[in-house]
Amino acid sequence: MDERNDISRIEEKWQKIWDEKHIFEANPDGRKKYFATYPYSYMNGLPHIGHAFTCLRVDFESRYKRMRGFNVLFPFAFHCTGLPIVAAAARIRDGEKRQLKIMRDMGIPGNEVERFSDPVYWTEYFPKRWESIMRSVGMSIDWRRKFITTSLNPQYDSFVKWQFTRLKEKDYVRKGSHPVIWCPKDSIPVGDHDRLSGEGETPTEYTLLKFRLEDGRFLVAATLRPETAYGQTNVWINPTVDYAVADRDGEKWILSPDAVGKLDQQGVRLVEAGRVKGREIVGAMAYSYTMEANIPVLPAVFADPAKGTGIVSSVPSDSPDDYIALLDLKKSASSGKLDPALSKIVSKIHPIDIIETPGYGTLPAKRVVEKLKIINQDEKEKLEEARQEIYREGFYKGRMLSGLRDVGGLPVDRAREKIKSDMLKKGQAAVMYEPSGEVVCRCLTKCIVKVVENQWFLAYGDEGWKKRAHAAVSRMNFYPGFLDRQFDNVIDWLKDWACVHHTGLGTSLPWDENWKIESLSDSTLYMAYYTISLHLSRSSGWKGVPDDSFYDYIFLGKGEPQKVAANNGIRKNELEAMRREFLYWYPLDLRVSGKDLVGNHLTFALFNHAAIFPEDQWPKAYGVNGWITISGSKMSKSAGNSLMLHTALEKYGADITRLTEAYAGEGFDDPNWDEDFAESCWRRLSQMREYASSLSALPAGRKDDVDRWFISTIGILYRNYIENMEGLLFKSAVKAALIDMQNALKWYSRRKGGKLNGEAGSMFARLQTLMMAPFTPHMCEEIWHAIGNSSSVCLEILPEPDSFEVSEDAILREGYLEDVINDVDEIVKVTGIKPKGIYIYTCAGWQADMLSLEISGVKDRERRSGLTSGVAKAAVDRFFKKLATERGQGKLQIRAKVAETLDEKAFLNSSVEFLEKELKAKVVVQRAGEEGMNDPAGRSANAFPGRPAIYVE
RNA sequence: GCGAGGGUAGCCAAGUCAGGCCUAAGGCGGCAGACUCAAGAUCUGUUCUCGAAGGAGUUCCACGGUUCAAAUCCGUGCCCUCGCACCA
What number is the ipTM of this complex? Predict the structure, then answer.
């Protein structure tokens, strides 16, 4: 295909030249700087058009700022920290089919796949692929500054260690315990990437409630809803199950043997001392601390020893399971199947109202059981549905009844916390975790929850730190603007963050080498590292690994340069130059990411900057965008509509890919990759190239009003473009630079009958090329050189927005002419007449004067009657009637303006040739009421200032 | 439930903060015409309804209000998307 070859030829040519001339390599100089970044991507796959969308936003803005005279730094790096790479490598080692297919889909040949069983190979392979793809899409990146993360890069590693050392000093890294999903066989935490099933399941917290039996032992029941403890009527135990009797600090606890094992992993020491059959306890009485009374222990088959403790406190008012179990038992009792003593107890049990939930009343369990027509305990699915429904409703909307001790009137969520913490304090309860759903490790073992002790946290819950993060938000700009509210909220709800792992790639905690820093925690400050990475990289020749004093000096200005330089084996002036380079580039001017990073990375970065740097080094702006869709539907591999960047590049080339991305959308909404638009781009670009050449070759000459209109119009579009570029509104900018500019040129060309003014023409060609350069830089270089320039368009300085002469009059005139043509077209269309002659009647002179008086609010009666003397009363009435209508439509101002600035008749007469061509008929222009007027249908009476009458014959 | 955003023509989307040439930009799709043997591509026109005179009518989630004037401001309701984490 010719055009595809054309595209490749152009793009390869310019990319080579940019590279050879080092034009995107940024070094400090006397210019003002602009530092923009994209959060480095994770190296477990190749970029798709969603990555490209976000990254291109940085590129568009970087290229634009470069053309506004800024010294722009746009660096890139490769994130390798964490579990996914290690997990995927392991899957390859195991020959897992799905993983092998993923590798094939990324274009990795079968005989090479084996090499990916080593995680380190990923960190070599994918950065190379990413760089090459990012280069071929034309990213204006300073590649000298690239690096990979983890201990595989000792310099970066030392930077992260320095960061954590400083955070620890400020007491922002703290020790605590933390529940994780855990594989008992492998003895490791099992992240989503290591799971065979159960992705997304997290530890959930059960409260263990103790019930004292008369013999002094405790039944230990597990509940997710401690706030219902005031509604207990009895305790459920499974008669067929063997329960463990375990020693806990001198107490005897009765609970399922599974639970003993689980609690052991969660720091609750239990020593099993014997077994007891469930049925042996049925019928006993157990003391409830919340009810302050003894309640009976009753049999229930739904009490599952694999879940919780296998013992359940019964709250038939709010738990559908309890309610239906109670009904079952009552049925057995009345049919005589139950022991008579038990029957007597059962008959006395009634649900107790404790919570009012809108729409469910005070006995939601009864309500939902009846609604779903649940008959007995065996209907597991329906019960699950019932549980889901009222747990959610009850938790969010429910309120404790006012008479309840301690928690009367509280919303359910607060009551839960209060009851739980009160009971824990009094030793009446304990905590146990279970996975929220079944999780199976890749080793086929069912996972449990383990409470990891001595876990390290970043103290994002710390109030003082939050305050600094809020301060950072208040100093920043956001695109779109409402994001400040979003970030403030994220900062408020953020709690301490477990920041280390035992597995995966990464940097070790400097004071505890057994821990690896987790991937969202090692990437919060590295933007600063870019400013000097060039001097640290292995290619720079310095092989040493910096120590903490080095970073203290570079980033914080602390320490004696002489000493620091000596310690690190470099020259003092080199060290000082690095410090200067950091100070030159920092703070970060812009960081752009997808909206998925708002709740973590972007906020973490604010916290970390706020912790370590002074205010004036905090980030200055964040841009956030949505997730890309393809022709309207979500991008997903399984649905078969995912588009890898290199695939798009093969199909369309860089410029069209870039343009389609720019046009995909802006703001926070999900952008849309429009395949049809992409298809139409080549035509647009080649047209742009063709007329740029021909416009630049035109002879200059005196400019007329139409030329002035054209220059005014492109001046206005240019201002609009600048505004949009400043606001990261690239779709609007493309519309102005490409589509609106082209439409303006079309009208101009028609209006001038093809005889365009050379000065206006080359102004247009030059301006449009500059405006489009951030989006389609390759084609614009091509055009830029074709129209006689030898410099790179990427470094050309854009004109000042107010440097264009905008003539309001010229714009008014052309609008007026267009209106006249539209009116005639409308008449022709409605009447179906094939026009032979068109008569246009401009208004009588008195009308224009009268309109001026009206507009300016002059009430001078004499002047008014003077104007209309000799004019028929009918005509005057008609004029005022029309005036009222036009006023109602809000068009009076513009009419008056036309009438004041324009001799309508003379102007239309000067454009008769054009009108005749446009309207394909003879055109006669007359003033209403003038001598010798030809007005066969009497239409001239319709004339109004700024709106001539028309007759079509 | 809390937090953030949103609901505009066949679809996508601008306009809303600063009410008035707003029947509402632009793109896509559709329709018609030109070119062509034909198709595609391209170009031109058109795309809420009615209309043989540039007009009228009805629209911007729904209902109510403010105003000479509301897609835009205020109130109420309905609906949708995203986040609520230990993971990139």
Answer: 0.94
